[in-house]
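Pilot study result, target chain (288 residues):
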Amino acid sequence: MQKIAFIGTGVMGASMAGHLLDKGYPVSVYNRTRSKADGLVGAGAVWKDSPYEAAEEADVVVTILGYPSDVESVYLGERGILSALRPGGLAIDMTTSSPSLARSIEEVASRRGIGVLDAPVSGGDLGAREARLSIMVGGARVDFERALPLLEAMGKNIVYQGEAGAGQHTKMCNQIAIAGGMVAIGESLAYAQKAGLDAETVLQSIAAGAAGSWSMSNLVPRALKGDYAPGFYVKHFVKDMKIALESAEEMQLELPGLAMAKRLYEQLVASGSGDEGTQALFRLFLER
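Predicted structure:
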């Protein structure tokens, strides 16, 4: 079987790498905080001391990192994975990152005979644990077909979107829709509270109707219990919204709803809630 190097074993990556192990793939792992990979190593993964060392023995490298700067460093930096992978290798970046960076990485990789896919995901920690992530893929179709068995081990809704950068653009569409929805849900909770209603009882009615969404069904119950543990970090969502707004500006597109959502989430970061889950936004509305 293909040798897999998995780089980034945080909230989502650890589960995703675990599914590849469960399928029998030989997996090596690297993470900046080694303790976050201990469970995988205990399950049979091989620890490597750097992304370069993980990639140089791999057929396929999978990355899920924090920020575009991390992606750029890991792929294009000195002793980056593109300098370690052999010609014919494949790299799959599942970070939510910049479409323009995805294209730049693909240009460098193609000159070295390496395939690259940008394949960001949606579904949070729960989707990662249950191997039912939505995966949006950009790059060459031949590389997509090669990667499909690996992607199917981690997700359920896997869609090829087009050339390099298309996966990241699709993820921006996803984040734009979520951002506006989170604000609308927060306002709905505030209205219920002011009207003297029980929020959990209201949720029973509206989550099953036309207003329902994944965020409403999965994140509101957490917030109502005071559970703000991250399925997806506030600080990473702010990063995503920033990328979407920058990409929209390049296309001369105004997104006022997204800009408003970003300002609200930046309030959370400023208050020290950047490492909480995105459901922490509802606290701004529930505590009014």
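One observation from the pilot: The CA atoms of residues 29 and 245 lie 33 Å apart. A full batch analysis is planned for the follow-on phase.
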